[in-house]
Automatic annotation (TrEMBL):
Residues 245-341 form the H2-forming N5,N10-methylenetetrahydromethanopterin dehydrogenase C-terminal domain. Catalyzes the reversible reduction of methenyl-H(4)MPT(+) to methylene-H(4)MPT. The keyword Transcription does not apply. It comes from bioreactor metagenome. Keywords: Methanogenesis, One-carbon metabolism. This is 5,10-methenyltetrahydromethanopterin hydrogenase. Residues 1-241 form the 5,10-methenyltetrahydromethanopterin hydrogenase N-terminal domain. Coiled coil: none annotated.
Length: 344
């Protein structure tokens, strides 16, 4: 299998957040005996997993930054980083973030510059600045592109070079549904018809160098492709989850915290209403649907930054507490406490 990874990334965004580390990268490095993997960034980490754990040796990383200010930091010992991560990553991460912060003042942002700790070539990857060269004859094209509205313009530059039946996956910044639409639009606009491709995802659901997991979207790719990605993901990432394409964004991206709270609320509310009160599931669903729809309408009509002006959080304190029983009672007290803090 030939894999093309489009986008090398830059560590500055992860470092700036202050919440990332190299836990997964260090785990892979120790497992395969290659310390230099321990400080790889996102695409390189996942590429190293494909090469070393899934046995896929033909991997190319494409990014225009390779001909520009691609800066490799060699201030830190891979072995020291691995040792620190066995106990407490924060023993060494503050120094790493500080170094990146200093460099970020002078090294330009992608695609003009990037900050890494290992050069992909040192791990055996092919590197190129040409997406067309990378995708030609590739069986699997893994994209790591900027925000969603820029992706179509990038993809259309190499879409004619994608071979029939190739696997196309995104890793972040764009919903799978939008990713599929991009290829549908390109196919419709092409008089010769663009090749049929299998669109899915290979989404880490977190910073890849932190956690060994991946989310595979079904609904657009054929079953053989989805099964293949799940199998590879289990070998390479450790855990692979298959999800409907529509759920990739809510489950994997920034709104996952909101999704988790909402989903836990629905499940708890359902069990309390049906198992404790004995109400029919249809009734519970009707009421849940009204709650979700009306709160969404409030956000859409008033704006997420102005919701408290139209619905005082205190209004729920005297009503929601009456549902503090059963499965809902396991999570509701914390929610009520959070709402009460917003009334102070």
């Amino acid at each position: 299998m030939k894999v093309a990874i489009l986008g090398a990334g830059c560590y500055r965004t992860h470092a700036a957040s202050g919440i990332t580390n190299f836990s997964r990268a260090c785990e892979v490095a120790e497992k395969v005996g290659k310390p230099e993997i321990s400080m790889t960034h996102s695409t390189v980490t996942m590429g190293a997993e494909l090469m070393e754990l899934a046995g896929i040796k033909d991997v190319t990383i494409a990014d225009p930054v390779f001909d520009k200010e691609f800066t490799v930091v060699d201030d830190f010992s891979y072995e020291d980083v691995m040792e620190a991560h066995k106990e407490n990553p924060e023993k060494i991460m503050p120094q790493i973030r500080e170094k990146v912060g200093e460099l970020a003042k002078t090294v330009p942002k992608p695609p003009e510059g990037a900050i890494h700790f290992t050069h992909p070539e040192d791990l055996g990857f092919n590197v190129t600045t040409d997406d067309v060269e990378a995708v030609s004859d590739a069986d699997w094209i893994m994209t790591w592109f900027p925000k969603g509205d820029m992706q179509k313009g990038i993809i259309e530059k190499f879409s004619d070079n994608i071979k029939e039946g190739a696997i196309l996956t995104h890793a972040c910044t764009v919903p799978t549904t939008m990713f599929q639409t991009i290829f549908e639009d390109l196919s419709s606009a092409d008089m010769n018809q663009a090749p049929k491709v299998n669109v899915s995802s290979y989404h880490p659901g977190a910073v890849p160098e932190m956690k060994g997991q991946v989310y595979i979207a079904d609904g657009y790719a054929n079953d053989e492709t989805v099964n293949k990605l799940v199998e590879i993901g289990q070998k390479a990432r450790g855990n692979a989850y298959e999800l409907p394409a529509e759920l990739l964004g809510p489950v994997c991206d920034m709104c996952s915290a909101l999704t988790a709270i909402t989903y836990a609320g629905i499940l708890g509310y359902r069990d309390s209403v049906t198992k404790v009160l004995g109400a029919p599931a249809g009734f519970a669903q009707m009421m849940a649907k009204e709650s979700l729809e009306q709160i969404t309408t409030l956000m859409n009509n008033r704006g997420i930054d102005k919701m408290e002006e139209y619905l005082d959080p205190a209004a729920l304190l005297g009503t929601a507490d009456s549902m503090n029983f059963g499965a809902t009672g396991e999570i509701l007290p914390s929610i009520l406490e959070a709402l009460e803090k917003r009334t102070e």
